[in-house]
Design a protein that fits this description.
By secondary structure, the chain is an all-alpha fold. It has one domain. Helix content is 73%, strand content 3%. The protein has twelve helices and four strands. The protein has helices at residues 3-73, 75-83, 106-123, 130-137, 139-150, 161-172, 183-194, 198-202, 205-210, 218-273, 282-303, 321-339; strands spanning 94-96, 99-101, 307-308, 318-319. Helix 3 crosses helix 7 and helix 10 (218-273) runs antiparallel to helix 11. The longest helix has 71 residues, at 3-73. It is elongated and about 95 Å long.
Length: 341
């Protein structure tokens, strides 16, 4: 066979092979592109599911947190009325079987009340999840911590109302503007930042999920998307349980608070005309004792942290079912014993 013909046939074969390789390469590129697109869609769909579940749970937790803050902010009014009663007995810790409720402590109630008022003022302009963050950590504990932080060098506990709120927010902001601090505005901002909002509720895993970027390599990106989807499924389960428990807790908290308001109104009416415990009738004395007991219950409920923080940074937090259940058992037992009628 002549050499030119052989070369021509060879060139033809080479050209055909080149076209085939090009087609195969194009198919692989198309497949890779589709895989990357699929991975991206899966990631976005998973994150959208998380946002939906998180919005519902955060709303439920914020509602609970605001109720707890409002309840705690009113403790000082109760303590003020009790302190007006002369020759009153010492209201000790309530104990029956395994049930215990903290004893009456005017100073502690005042601290919680001032701190809660400060936090309540702070969450007014804070981002979604701020009030819920306090409920997750325990409102009474958060309130005392806020007051303690702000009280450095300032006798805030001796103040009340707007003066206490302004002084605490200013202290949280690093002091008054005139003294070079950030003032109340910065203090309010710090409150919002310090709660960590959603991060406090779901754990550090949220930052790894939302901050994760998919690889440019198709196969790796797809497996990353699958992992994100798996983590979101876990988060959805946690958030659903937390939402349910938050709503349940708020319902029972409101029930106790409603009863407290009834009893407290009665006590206030009594104290308008009587200031000496010895002048109180048996029913009036029982009314005061019931008020003390109900405030103890409310304090105990608001102290429970609804969320257990994960030990590892990138793990999911858990619902504090043990403490929630124990507290609700105490509430149900006391309410049935004292206020069943």
């Amino acid at each position: 066979m002549p050499l030119p013909l052989i070369l021509g046939i060879g060139a033809g074969i080479a050209a055909t092979t080149g076209v085939g390789s090009g087609l195969a390469g194009g198919v692989k590129m198309k497949q890779a592109s589709n895989t990357l697109k699929s991975a991206s869609e899966k990631r976005e769909e998973a994150l959208a599911r998380f946002e939906k579940a998180n919005e519902k749970t955060t709303k439920a937790m914020d509602d609970l947190g605001e109720v707890e803050l409002k309840i705690c902010s009113g403790f000082q009014n109760f303590a003020d009325v009790v302190e007006m009663i002369q020759n009153r007995p010492e209201f000790k810790e309530y104990e029956k079987d395994e049930v215990s409720i903290p004893k009456y402590d005017a100073e502690e109630l005042k601290k919680v009340s001032v701190g809660a008022s400060v936090l309540l003022a702070g969450v007014g302009g804070a981002t979604l999840g701020a009030a819920g963050g306090f409920a997750a950590a325990g409102v009474t504990t958060s309130a005392v911590m806020a007051l303690g932080t702000a009280s450095t060098g300032t006798a805030i506990a001796s103040l009340s109302g707007a003066a206490a709120t302004n002084a605490t927010l200013a202290a949280l902001g690093g002091g008054a503007v005139a003294a070079g601090g950030g003032g109340m505005a910065l203090g309010s901002t710090m409150l919002g930042v310090s709660t960590l909002g959603v991060g406090l509720m779901v754990g550090g895993i949220i930052f790894s999920i939302t901050g994760a970027t998919l690889s440019k390599k198709a196969d790796k990106a797809f497996y990353q998307a699958l992992e994100i989807d798996r983590q979101v499924i876990q988060l959805e389960g946690f958030l659903q349980i937390l939402e349910t428990r938050a709503k349940e807790y708020k319902k029972i908290l409101n029930k106790v608070n409603s009863r407290y308001k009834i009893e407290f109104d009665k006590m206030c009416e009594t104290v308008k005309t009587k200031k000496d415990w010895n002048d109180f009738s048996d029913d009036e004395k029982l009314n005061v004792k019931n008020c003390v007991l109900l405030v103890g219950l409310l304090y105990k409920m608001c102290k429970v942290s609804l969320v257990n923080k994960a030990k590892n940074e990138n793990d999911i937090n858990t619902v504090n079912a043990r403490d929630i259940n124990e507290c609700l058992d105490v509430v149900n037992e006391v309410m049935e014993e004292r206020f069943a009628a």
